[in-house]
């Protein structure tokens, strides 16, 4: 068993501790991720089970209908505004955290880039990563 993944927001109000390994790590260039991150893409680690996530603090959230047509909720700290995690209406078991919210962001190892069709020339990502116009086929 590896170390849990811990992290939270900038002010410390929201904290998580995840005793699991990520099943998916991606840079996403969709419009929602651009708006949430304030730059060209978001970077995420997705964990398979809410049962292995311990959360402290009360996050605020807003719902978005993504490019895929699925509803997702962006959870952020009501005090400092940091985006911390995402949940998905159609896949309620999944728990996705923003890479920079980790206490050790170097543990993020992107595997793919998603929604490249929405990306901008000024947002350069690792050219060795597999790229998908939308999401990779399941
Ligand atoms: Zn905060
Ligand atoms: Zn996205």
UniProtKB/TrEMBL annotation:
GO terms for molecular function: carbon-sulfur lyase activity; metal ion binding. InterPro entries: CENP-V/GFA, Mss4-like_sf. Belongs to the Gfa family. PANTHER family: CENP-V_GFA DOMAIN-CONTAINING PROTEIN-RELATED, GFA DOMAIN-CONTAINING PROTEIN. This is Aldehyde-activating protein. The keyword Transcription does not apply. PROSITE patterns: CENP_V_GFA. It comes from Leptospira adleri.
């Amino acid at each position: 068993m590896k170390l849990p993944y811990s992290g939270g927001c900038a002010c410390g109000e929201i904290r998580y501790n995840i005793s699991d390994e990520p099943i998916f790590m991606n840079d996403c260039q969709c419009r929602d991720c651009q708006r949430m991150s304030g730059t060209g893409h978001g970077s995420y680690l997705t964990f398979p089970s809410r049962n292995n996530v311990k959360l402290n603090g009360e996050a605020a959230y807003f719902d978005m209908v993504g490019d895929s047509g699925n509803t997702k909720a962006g959870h952020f700290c009501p005090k400092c505004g940091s985006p911390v995690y995402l949940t998905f209406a159609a896949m309620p078991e999944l728990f996705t955290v923003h890479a920079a919210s980790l206490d050790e962001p170097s543990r993020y190892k992107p595997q793919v880039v998603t929604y490249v069709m929405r990306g901008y020339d000024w947002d350069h990502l690792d050219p060795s990563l597999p790229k998908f116009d939308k999401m990779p086929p399941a």
